Amino acid sequence: MLRSLTESDIPVLQEINKDALGYRVTLETTRQQFAKLHDDSKHVMIGFSDDQTDSLLGYVHAEIYECLYAESGFNILALAVLPDHQGKGIGTKLMKAIEEQARKQRLAFIRLNSGSERLEAHGFYRQIGYLSTKAQLRFIKTIE
Q1: Where are any strands of DSSP class E within 1-144?
Q2: Taking every annotated instance into account, which residue ranges of this chain make up the domain N-acetyltransferase (predicted)?
Q3: Tell me: the pLDDT tens digits for 95-130?
Q4: Cα–Cα dist 81/71, whole Å
Q5: Residue 74 · residue 63 · CB < 8 Å
Q6: Which residues have C-beta within 8 Å of that of residue 127, sequence separation ≥ 6?
Q7: How far apart are CA 80 and CA 90, in angstroms?
Q8: Is the CB of residue 35 less than 8 Å from the CB of residue 81?
Q9: Per-residue confidence in pLDDT tens, the chain, 144 aa
Q10: C-alpha dist (Å) from residue 90 to 18, 46, 53, 68, 126
Q11: Pseudo-torsion of CA 83, 87, 88, 94, nearest 10°?
């Protein structure tokens, strides 16, 4: 079932980020980031939970993408489902929910980036109607 994420989901969010996305982040960092982003109107976080237990199985996190060269849209920051529950339509339901949020907010598009090695994810995105429009490299510099 689709639902809002809550503070009680934080340990499972950390697990999902590790197991589904490969991000090894501490529980404390997950807790801090959740507290900061949860009430930020530019961020939307939707969870999908088991109907019987209400335990979180996956989530989508998007932020408003605004710039000078395009209309406003959503940028998907994370779409993740626990590995044992992938292939059951959860990701599709989460993406449909975020698409509905985009319509309600009158946003022009939804964009996302996916690692070049995540071929299965690329197939999923194509299957639900997303097009790959360019190849990119990510550059990052740690600020000390």
Answers
A1: 2-4, 43-49, 56-67, 70-81, 110-112
A2: 1-144
A3: 999 999 999 999 999 999 998 888 899 999 999 999
A4: 29
A5: yes
A6: none
A7: 9
A8: no
A9: 999 999 999 999 999 999 999 999 999 999 999 999 999 999 999 999 999 999 999 999 999 999 999 999 999 999 999 999 999 999 999 999 999 999 999 999 999 999 888 889 999 999 999 999 988 888 999 999
A10: 18, 12, 16, 34, 16
A11: 80
Q: Which residues of 39-62 are buried (b: 16+ CB within 10 A; e: fewer)?
A: eeeeebbbbbbeeeeeebbbbbbb
Could you say which DSSP state residue 83 is in?
Answer: G
3-class secondary structure, 129? coil
For residue 85, give every residue at least 6 positions away whose Cβ sits within 8 Å of its Cβ, in sequence order, or none.
57, 58
Would you give the distance in Å from CA 44 to the centre of its chain?
9
The H helix count followed by the E strand count for the chain is 4, 5
Q: Which amino acid is at 105?
A: Q
**What topology does CATH give the domain 2-113?**
Aminopeptidase (3.40.630)
What is the CA angle 57-37-11, rounded to 5?
Answer: 35
